[in-house]
Design brief:
It is a single chain. This protein has one domain. Helices cover about 50% and strands about 25% of the residues. It has four helices and nine strands, in the order αβββββαββββαα. Helix 1 runs parallel beside helix 3.
């Protein structure tokens, strides 16, 4: 018996030592997937911009914690877009969002709502009152039954994003107002990054 105990302890130490490494590896995979998702959505938005040059676009706008992945300003309004690289079946209800039947670690709807509220308050503090900033959660890799609105947030996939932005019937902006909003948000983003 005593001959197997050191081996058992050694095997247990090795298993314990591998757990943090495996968790770190999974975390890196999630971060890499999130980065790919953000680049994918950025590419779709850049194509929208080339086709419709009167839309303005910002990427990675810093917040106190984290960032806003994308902001689009144009004649159909102001859109704050959060991107998540979830894979699998996503269901959206009034209670929240599940991925493959599980709730994500952090609530993406809350994060998206917080980004839109930040943009709205930043504009107000600088004298630009925009009646509505549309929050969008974009899930480029998810299996989503259909685009939908929940709690005022549009949840959609990348291939529908450009259509919704071009045809949104929210609060239209005149070209001069859209240019002023974009210039202010660009200035805020540059000041926060510095």
């Amino acid at each position: 018996m005593t001959g197997t105990q050191p081996q058992d302890r050694r095997a247990k130490r090795q298993r314990v030592a591998r757990k943090p490494a495996a968790a770190a590896e999974r975390m890196l995979e999630r971060v890499a997937l999130g980065c790919r998702a953000e680049r994918s959505v950025a590419g779709a938005l850049e194509r929208l911009l080339r086709a419709r040059p009167y839309f303005h676009l910002l990427h990675s706008v810093p917040l106190d914690r984290g960032d806003i992945d994308h902001i689009v300003v144009g004649p159909t309004g102001v859109f704050v877009i959060e991107t998540k690289g979830y894979r699998g079946l996503v269901r959206v209800t009034d209670a929240g969002l599940t991925v493959n039947g599980l709730c994500p670690d952090r609530d993406p709807l809350r994060q998206t709502r917080r980004g839109a509220a930040y943009v709205r308050s930043r504009l107000r503090r600088n004298g630009l009152v925009i009646p509505w900033v549309q929050a969008v959660l974009c899930l480029p890799y998810a299996e989503l039954e259909r685009p939908q609105c929940v709690g005022g947030i549009l949840v959609t996939r990348r291939e529908h994003l450009g259509y919704f932005i071009r045809h949104w019937h929210g609060r239209p902006l005149r070209d001069a107002d859209a240019s002023r909003v974009f210039a202010l948000l660009q200035h805020c983003a540059e000041a926060s990054a510095a």
